[in-house]
Specification:
single chain; 418 residues; alpha/beta; UDP-n-acetylglucosamine1-carboxyvinyl-transferase, Chain; four-stranded mixed β-sheet; 26 strands; elongated; binds ligand EPZ
Length: 418
């Protein structure tokens, strides 16, 4: 069994380019089936979630191949409209294929995506958006069966700015007749990247990044090349590791504006953070101070995906920091593992109170989910002694080379078979 082993206590120094964004490339991979031709993706991160999406594309009839560092998808021969159960179970966010398959083939079928480590993951907003566009959606026997002789552009008002529901609506709307307006759309940068991809494929989409997105359906699509945007949560991870361990780290191939709530928190904790064109520099003496309450919210609020990561950076800070997790029901599963390393964290419902301790001790800990695993790496680089992280498959879902990246920044970290 593969583990990650970290020996803490080293300052982090160095320059590192940030990988492509998981949460951008997954909807873009689904969107490739909108075009009966070839798409070339550059900067696509090699993640287990990306490999799962490739398996779905191939099942649907696409040819998807890595050619060097580029991922090339030929969706000329998409013939199947079902996502098999075993592929859905690999990655619940495969629900993002629903809108694109429906737009291309007029029908789509998949097993109901269950919950995940973060708790129940409802998709009611996805389904109501597709129904609004004219799809008949049946939920029977744990399967979703969608059918639409023709999708019609409509106004879709989302009761919540759901990222996935916004993306599914955008992709389905590309196959609809007439214009679709999505109101109360999610404003995440990954939505803007999806819009940019769709535009390069010939679709007419505007408004991404705002709460209102307009899609003109039925456009003629064309072959295209797209470079995936940088991963702002991976960037937040390595900045938080440098903040906790102390040092000076510069990240390149990153848009500092995409993680301004995270860098503001690190600045408040005592780090020097300088954002420039395509880069972020962070200096830290490793002696952080507690900060004002961190409340997760839809973008541009503090990202829920960085909650565990920032919490790990503040475990030895002077004082007490309150976290409020407003996005998911069960997103404090990393707390018990951090407490095994000597952290002082108490949780009541959506609130976690972190009281700084003088030191953390390396321990054997277990990943509970993707970002909880990232938090263990952040805690490990600032702990005394050795930390062994188990169940690292969670981390590999979102980090292409976490060991290589942290070694490049001077951390004593390695893969180990045990
Ligand atoms: C995306 O998930 C991301 N995943 C998540 O990142 C991220 O945490 C989340 O957005 C919020 O930013 C991908 O992009 C693949 P939502 P998504 O729909 O789309 C509720 C990571 O670590 N909701 O914006 O599933 C939902 O329960 C992952 O990279 C409904 O009630 O998130 C949640 O409370 C974890 N009904 C809230 O909305 C729906 O139909 C936000 O969920 C849909 C969502």
């Amino acid at each position: 069994m593969k583990h990650i082993v970290i020996r803490g206590g080293h300052r982090l120094e160095g320059v590192l380019p940030v990988q492509g964004a998981k949460n951008s490339v997954l909807p873009i991979l689904a969107a490739t089936i909108l075009h009966p031709g070839t798409t070339v993706l550059r900067g696509c991160p090699r993640l287990s979630d990306v490999e799962a999406s490739i398996r779905i594309l191939r099942h649907l009839g696409c040819d998807a191949q890595w050619q060097g560092e580029e991922l090339v998808v030929d969706a000329s021969s998409v013939s199947r409209w079902d996502v098999p159960d075993h592929l859905m179970r690999e990655m619940r966010s495969s629900v993002i294929f629903l809108g694109a398959i429906l737009a291309r083939l007029g029908k789509a079928e998949m097993s109901y995506p269950g919950g995940c480590e973060l708790g129940p993951r409802p998709i009611d907003l996805h389904l109501s958006a597709l129904r609004k566009l004219g799809a008949a959606v049946e939920e029977k026997g744990g399967r979703l069966c969608c059918e639409a002789a023709a999708l019609e552009g409509r106004e879709i008002a989302l009761s919540l700015p759901s990222v996935g529901a916004t993306e599914n609506a955008m992709l389905a709307a590309c196959g609809a007749r007439g214009e679709t307006v999505i109101v109360n759309a999610a404003r995440e940068p990954e939505i803007v990247d999806l819009q940019n991809f769709l535009r390069s494929m010939g679709c007419t989409v505007r408004g991404a990044g705002s709460s209102t997105i307009c899609v003109a359906g039925g456009q003629l699509t064309k072959d295209c090349i797209h470079t995936v945007m940088p991963d702002r949560i991976v960037a937040a991870t390595y900045l938080s590791a440098a903040a906790a361990a102390g040092g000076e780290v510069e990240l390149t191939h990153v848009d500092y504006r995409h993680l301004s709530t995270v860098t503001a928190a690190l600045h408040e904790a005592g780090c020097r953070v300088i954002g420039g064109e395509g880069r972020i520099l962070l200096r830290s003496d490793g002696a952080l101070k507690a900060i004002s309450a961190v409340r997760t919210a839809p973008y541009p609020g503090f990202p829920t995906d960085a909650q565990a990561i920032l919490m790990a950076a503040l475990l030895k800070s002077r004082g007490t920091t309150v976290f409020v997790e407003n996005m998911f029901d069960n997103r404090y599963r990393h707390v018990d593992e951090l407490c095994r390393m000597g952290a002082d964290i108490s949780v009541a419902d959506r609130v976690a109170v972190v009281t700084g301790v003088p030191r953390l001790s390396g321990a054997t800990v277990r990943c509970t989910d993707l970002r909880g695993g990232a938090a263990l790496m952040v805690a490990g680089v600032s702990a005394e002694g050795e930390t062994c992280i188990e169940d690292i498959h969670h981390i590999c879902r979102g980090y292409a080379d976490p060991v290589g990246d942290l070694v490049a920044l001077g951390a004593d970290i390695r893969w180990e078979e045990r």
